[in-house]
Automatic annotation (TrEMBL):
Protein name as annotated: beta-glucosidase
Endpoints of the signal sequence: 1-25
Reaction(s) catalysed (UniProt annotation): Hydrolysis of terminal, non-reducing beta-D-glucosyl residues with release of beta-D-glucose
Record domain Calx-beta: where: 204-308
């Protein structure tokens, strides 16, 4: 039935149709149409007015269309779409940026028609207030639940909209929903399952609510107080535009309900606070709630302070006074942790235990009321999930506010907050951003790896975060993988040597340092064999290799992929994260997702290896397991996953797990084991005694001292692959022509996992680009990004090329990516290298295919992703530091060679694993006889356990081979050369030199 027909017979239909429009009150303003979806608003983006879809990944944006529907509530068409969202996704209607913003202030709210699927899923609606245009405005959110079938008109009063805390494109303007400069709306669709939707008739309705002009707030939703103390609750009034109150506001208050006993645990209070007309915005009054001491040991007890507001918008939460838990053994820091955990575990309910096993995304819990309601054990910031503004102070305030919510739970168990700080505190703008792991692996410097952990831990903990989802101990076996740069290299021995980073993050292996304010809990990820997935085996969206299947024998699994985890367990790593990928061991089980492999998690990791920390799932990883939600939860928990990262489905997980326990499909013993492991790490971190952020070291974030280490790391990560005629290092007397897409782009230089999950090009973080580093080094530099400036008069060219940022499967080769340089980069290399001697730097997360241009390039450098300190790259280019880096992965000649790795029977790369020329002052001397002598001495050093001498002897032999073989590498040279580096890392120094002698003879 068309809308016109409905209006013609409104009186009749109002009594017959549950969704028929009600008559407008005489004093209400006319309804204002925002969207009819008849085609009057096109599918378009800024600056034009339009509707467009968006999402966190290439396959997350919903597919939208305008469809004819006979039952359309408004006109003939509706907006409909399908979606399958793994991260986040939805659609937006932005008004034209070139036109004035719209004034919505006369209305009560926004409403829309929604075709219900009765699936119980939350639909979030966002409105855009103030700012320059729809993509640079403040975001305010409200939601409704799809718990109905068929068309329903959903009304969302503006008083229901809350300032969005997880993301603000402008960092916030005034944090006031003014409604006078509105730029449109957006709808966020539910992730985790395929779905479809239909929507129609978006409009503004009703008379403006006076509560929008004034609001009452309290200083905090939770007020902990020691037994016998007096809680002081501050109540404030605020107005839109900070004008004085136009009308009086009254706040009636009373203590009622809660778990504390009135008259026994506290003295009841009640009364009224009045803010007269004319009161200044921001005026505060204090309500005091006295508690009483009864000397008995008790859990925490709550006293809600119920507020009744007249003339203003009420606070989102009823403030609660909490009498702190006291006198119980688990609170006694002098007792052994094992005893404290046993005491606390014995007191907890099933719901409290499943809450501890639940981790939610910070953006999903809003202001945090669900932390208390569901006794949540953990929160995380996913990639790019940051407070507004994105400053250390804002991080600490945000996490403290969440921790405060946990204080309202019965046993006041603190949250453990986690972030992906994979190359420094990379979510935080202004943090020290280090080279990605691939560059640290290229340094071959375990002490440097340790220092990167020290810097990361200090900066992360100073913002109130005690847990880091790092390091990645993957052994990358195929450079087509979008996570290849998160690996230290293709050789498990190299990965093991870099695990000194765990001590940098955590301190001593016994966990005694974890309570320090500069240490964090580390996470070994992704268990196991995520770096061994086969190209084309992934079934996740459009991914080609990430989250795919690793097919290996048990011996290959042990030798290549498991070895780094035993090292991590021996180093006391506190948590382990399973991989999204599947493992096929040829044992008849087929490809089984790692989150369901009890043989590997319970059997190998916790059993044989002796891991005593806790296992945290990856982001929504259980959604990829077969069966319904109950089957997924049951499979993962029974396999040994202790805490589940369920960012937006935390309620469903917690209740489902409890149901599975009550049904006997998950044992109470398994739950107690998981919770005990979690509580143990929280106590090691000292969170029970000090749950709030210690910001005393915040001044070190992004400090010169930390950037000095990052600069050193950038320098040591540079790998000199070719250096004809000793072109590098450059001389300060030379006139240098700099070109290429990555010379002056710090976003490209830092790569993925920088401020946002996927990273982005451009000036996104403070730091120094490679171009700026060259200029600061004192050279005479001309810069032309596309090499369009005249090349004459220059002595040498430096062309900085490579990749743009990506993360995970979005960066898989074949998923919009390849291993070749862009057309613009190829053109820049061709032009500059044809005009003068040239050095080419490849800034990338993996090798790029450069063989077709290798002859025209005089010097070639694998620059990896060096982080924010471009000065470090300039240091080696100008000789302030020597080139010492070595390839952490084999550099292929063509994509058809992939996968190619050290130890392969057929091994003929462009440059072998371990290759890396040096610019040390003294070139090596000697030949075959020298190598024989070096082999003898290296074998002796090995017998005597003299690793320092052994490594030095192998390095000298390597330099001899490289000096002879440079420019004419063959398979006969490359294979023993690469094998030698593996032997060196496993402490077999004599055999390593013998292999190098073999390579020398073949050169």
């Amino acid at each position: 039935m068309r809308r016109t027909a409905l209006l013609a017979s409104a009186a009749l239909l109002a009594g017959l149709l549950p969704w028929a429009a009600t008559a407008r009150a005489a004093d209400e303003p006319p309804v204002t149409t925002v969207d009819r979806f008849e085609g009057e608003v096109p599918f378009a983006r800024q600056p034009a007015e339009g509707i467009f879809a968006w999402g966190g990944d290439t396959d997350d944006p919903p597919a939208l269309r305008l469809a004819d529907r006979a039952d359309a509530p408004e006109g003939a068409k509706v907006l409909t779409g399908t979606y399958d969202i793994s991260g986040y996704g939805g659609f937006t209607h932005d008004y034209a940026a070139t036109a004035p913003a719209h004034d919505w202030s006369a209305h009560r709210g926004i409403r829309l028609w929604w075709d219900g699927r009765n699936n119980g899923r939350k639909i979030t609606v966002e409105i855009k207030d103030g700012g320059a245009h729809g993509e640079a405005s403040e975001l305010w959110t409200a939601s409704f639940t799809d718990d109905f079938t068929g068309w329903k008109q959903v009304e969302l009063p503006f008083t229901d909209f809350a300032y969005r805390t997880d993301y603000q494109p402008v960092g916030g303007i005034d944090h006031i929903l003014g409604l006078k400069e509105m730029w449109g709306y957006s709808v966020t669709l539910p992730p985790g399952a395929k779905g479809d939707f239909a929507m129609d008739g978006v409009e503004l309705y009703g008379t403006a609510d006076p509560a929008l002009r004034a609001s009452v707030t309290t200083d905090a939703p939770v007020h902990p107080v020691e037994e016998g103390g007096t809680a002081k609750v501050k109540v404030s009034v605020a107005t839109t535009g900070e004008a004085p109150l136009a009308d009086p506001v009254t706040v009636a208050y009373t203590t009622a309900g809660g778990t504390a006993a009135s008259g026994t645990d506290y003295t009841p209070v009640s009364g009224t606070v009045t803010f007269p007309a004319g009161t200044a915005s921001g005026t505060t009054r204090t309500i005091e709630v006295p508690t009483r001491r009864d000397r008995a040991a008790e859990p925490a007890e709550t006293i809600p302070l119920k507020l009744t507001i007249t003339g203003a918008k009420a606070p989102a939460d009823t403030p609660q006074v909490v009498i702190d838990a006291h006198g119980l053994p688990y609170l006694n820091a002098r007792l052994p942790i094992r005893e404290r955990v046993a005491d606390l575990l014995g007191r907890m309910s099933l719901a409290e235990k499943t809450g501890q096993m639940t981790q939610a995304e910070r953006g999903a819990v809003g202001q945090g009321a669900d932390i208390t309601a569901y006794a949540l054990g953990s929160l995380l910031s996913g990639g790019g999930s940051t407070p507004t503004p994105n400053t250390p102070e804002a991080w600490a305030r945000m996490i403290d506010a969440f921790q405060l919510r946990a204080q309202a739970t019965r046993y006041q168990i603190p949250l453990i907050y986690g972030v992906d700080a994979v190359h420094g505190h990379n979510n935080l703008t202004g943090a020290t951003i280090l080279p990605h792991n691939i560059g640290i692996g290229a340094s071959r410097d375990p002490e440097l790896a340790y220092r990167t952990g020290v810097v990361t831990a200090a900066e992360v903990r100073a913002t109130g975060v005690p847990w880091d989802f790092a390091p990645c101990l993957c052994v990358s076996r195929d450079e087509r993988w979008g996570r290849a740069y998160e690996s230290y290299g293709e050789d498990p021995a190299l990965v093991e040597s870099m695990e000194t980073v765990i001590q940098g993050l955590q301190g001593r292996a016994n966990g005694k340092d974890l309570s320090r304010n500069d240490k964090v809990l580390a996470t070994a990820k992704h268990f196991v064999a995520d770096g061994g997935t086969a190209y084309g085996s992934s079934t996740t969206g459009t991914y080609t290799i990430d989250q795919g299947v690793t097919t290996v024998t048990r011996k290959q699994l042990e030798d290549i992929h498991l070895a780094p985890y035993q090292e991590a367990v021996d180093r006391g790593v506190g948590t382990v994260m399973p991989s999204y990928s599947s493992l096929d061991l040829g044992d008849g089980k087929g490809a089984v997702k790692m989150h369901a492999r009890g043989d590997m998690i319970n059997g190998v990791l916790k059993g044989r290896m002796g891991f005593d920390g806790f296992v945290i799932s990856d982001y929504n990883a259980t959604d990829q397991l077969p069966g319904d939600r109950a089957a997924q939860v049951r499979a993962a928990v029974n396999a040994g996953v202790d805490m589940m990262m369920v960012p937006y489905s935390y309620k469903e997980f917690s209740t489902t797990l409890a149901d599975e326990v009550r049904a006997g499909r998950v044992t109470s013993k398994r739950i107690d084991d998981a919770v005990a492991r979690i509580l143990t790490e929280k106590m090691k971190l000292g969170l029970f005694e000090h749950p709030y952020a210690d910001t005393s070291r915040a001044a070190a974030i992004g400090s010169p001292e930390h950037r000095k280490i990052a600069r050193r790391a950038a320098a040591e990560s540079q790998v000199l692959l070719k250096n004809t005629g000793g072109l590098l290092p450059l001389k300060k007397t030379q006139k240098v022509y700099v070109a290429g897409s990555n010379a002056d782009d710090i976003g490209n230089q830092t790569g993925g996992w920088t401020v946002t999950w996927q990273g982005s090009s451009g000036n996104i973080v403070p730091g120094t680009t490679i171009l700026e580093g060259l200029r600061k080094a004192g050279g005479q530099v001309t810069y032309s990004k596309d090499a369009s400036a005249p090349t004459g008069g220059h002595d040498v060219g430096v062309v900085v090329v490579g990749e743009t940022p990506y993360a995970e499967g979005a960066g898989d080769v074949g998923n919009g990516h390849d291993l070749t340089l862009s057309a613009a980069d190829r053109a820049a290399v061709d032009k500059v290298c044809a005009a003068m001697e040239c050095a080419v730097l490849i800034v990338s997360g993996r090798p790029q295919l450069i063989g077709d241009r290798l002859d025209e390039i005089d010097a070639l450098v694998a620059s990896w992703l060096p982080g924010t300190e471009g000065d470090g790259v300039a240091d080696v280019l100008y000789g302030k530091r020597p080139f010492t880096g070595q390839l952490p992965v084999s550099w292929p000649k063509s994509e058809s060679q992939l996968p190619i790795n050290v130890g392969d029977t057929a091994y003929d790369p462009q440059f072998p694993y371990g290759w890396g020329l040096t610019t040390l002052a003294e070139p090596p001397r000697g030949g075959t006889s020298t190598l024989r002598a070096l082999a003898s001495r290296a074998a002796a050093a090995e017998r005597h356990g003299d690793s320092r001498t052994g490594r030095a002897l192998v390095t000298r032999a390597r330099h001899l081979v490289q000096q002879k073989a440079a420019g004419h590498l063959t398979q006969a040279v490359s294979k023993p050369f690469a094998d030698a580096d593996h032997l060196l890392l496993t402490g077999r120094y004599g055999k390593a030199v013998e292999k190098l002698a073999e390579a020398y003879r073949a050169a």
